[in-house]
């Protein structure tokens, strides 16, 4: 077991053998900067001040060779080897989280495999930003991370839960959960959220239940009377996978200048949803130097869209990614490079 110290935050915690910096932080209830937790978004990029870690291979678009040489690493992909001192590059809201209880107030099954669950909390819970997420416990089941889909100040928190084959929690929610069941919520988490001072073109891309944080961001844009252009993209593997299409259109209609695009795979041409979405992005944009983008959903689509938008001059620090990764057994990396600080 090794000790991890977050310099300048007054926080330290223990990391188990072969545990990543991010895993250890989450286990101790510390809101380490993070988004996808899968090496795609770069939100957990940090500086290794001292100590040794094993850094697994990641995309050079997220962590360049030069950054590695300078001691930067991704906390989600770096296993702790010795006592370490680290500094997250993103240091907003480095704090412990709130816990709140509530009960399921409604469950609506929409699309092909999505349940929209609303939870009435014991007290108003609005201390989160649009785009963030929470750890949600249904009864005694293990916690799962779900994004807030509603606007701040709503007495009912909304979460979108896709049924995953063999998924213990999602199967319970879809097949056995009932109105009035107890729910506990810890949060907020995440750094892929809409900042109050955001200006310019806003590009919002959602695949599958990645629509939840995008919907929350849209609500916030409407409340703030966002004056610049907003483009919303909904992507699904097939047409039946789309949901809340009319509600998203209505939200767009409340903005001064907003467009709603919907893409899905095409059986006739064989084009996948990702190919359709990338083709649309390529057709719609030439230069995105003054834009801000939020990409939410499957890791493959998030990474592909990130590459596409950055290639159009979108600044990487204004490209916020939240890749939805299903929980799978941990696999060991073979001989990852070791960093020392």
Automatic annotation (TrEMBL):
Residues 97-195 form the FAD-binding FR-type domain. Residues 1-93 form the 2Fe-2S ferredoxin-type domain. Coiled coil: none annotated. It comes from the Bacteria. GO terms for molecular function: iron-sulfur cluster binding; oxidoreductase activity. SUPFAM superfamilies: 2Fe-2S ferredoxin-like, Ferredoxin reductase-like, C-terminal NADP-linked domain, Riboflavin synthase domain-like. This is CDP-4-dehydro-6-deoxyglucose reductase. It comes from Hyphomicrobium facile.
